Amino acid sequence: MKEIDFKNLDRTKNWRVTLYGKPGVGKTTAIKYLKGKTLELAFDDSAKVLAGMNIDGKVLVMDGEQPTNEIVEMLKVAKAEQGNYDNLVLDNISALEKNWFIEQGRKSKNGISNEIQNYNTWTNYFIRMINAFYKLDYNILITAWEFQVPITTESGQTFEQYSPQIRDSVRNTFMGLTDVVGRMIIKPSTGERGVILEGNDGLFAKNRLDNRKGCKIEDLFKWGDANVQTPSVPTGTGEQGKTETSTGE
Fold it and tell me: Each residue of 111-160: pLDDT tens digit?
């Protein structure tokens, strides 16, 4: 336990951000906008898109055959490198979840199918894992694919809500621990890449680091910067380019 005077609290120290969106929308490429030195833990093969970019840091690439053991080794490296890097990137947790279940299936009786206990084990494993990373002295960026989750409002209406692609048993806890959850999209009319930071019935998003409802991807990590202008960013429930409302302008 540590004691901190309220006047000394720092909202943006060691922030935790999750970016989710369709494959290819630019989640991994967003790493180039991080300030300082970056350690990336790549759970899939998407790190190659960063080739040739002027990024200060290094990447550890998981081969996916034994993700449980590899996560332990990656966590050890991340602990040892505290102080040498400003940012830690977990890219992406949807791929990690998929690889973890494939690994467990190989251990089953038929060598393919997952068993009932695997699902309970994943819940405990993931929460313990994400807590271990969140205790480290880094700014942390996490990426995920998107999918749609059925939700029911208090009035009884049912919606399909865009959300990070991860199992129901851990999603709410994970997103509750995270400071910012943003859906990354491409604006069809301009090709501009942006992030929705305010949620509604049609998508999950949150921002407890500043008051922006959306921004360009290159401005995402400029927390509380008065010079950052909020662009017109779709916030509706449909596919990219078919939304009805926007923030900012």
Answer: 888 888 998 999 999 999 999 999 999 999 999 999 998 988 788 888 89
Report which listed range, 14-18, 42-46, 147-151, 244-248, is most confident: 14-18
Cα 111 versus chain centre, distance: 31
Residue pair 211/220 in contact by the 8 Å Cβ criterion? no
- Residue that is written with structure tokens 């890449």 in the block: 193
**Amino acid at site 34:** L
Residue type for position 141: L
| Mean per-residue pLDDT of the chain | 87
Q: What is the pLDDT of residue 145?
A: 97
Place of tokens 């180039």: 32
How confident is the model over 6-22, as a mean pLDDT?
81
Query: Are the CB atoms for 100 and 67 separated by under 8 Å?
Result: yes
Q: Which of 45-54, 87-96, 202-211, 234-243 has the lowest mean pLDDT?
A: 234-243
CA-wise closest residue to 116 among 126, 105, 106: 105
Per DSSP bridges, beta strands 246-247 and 233-234 are antiparallel
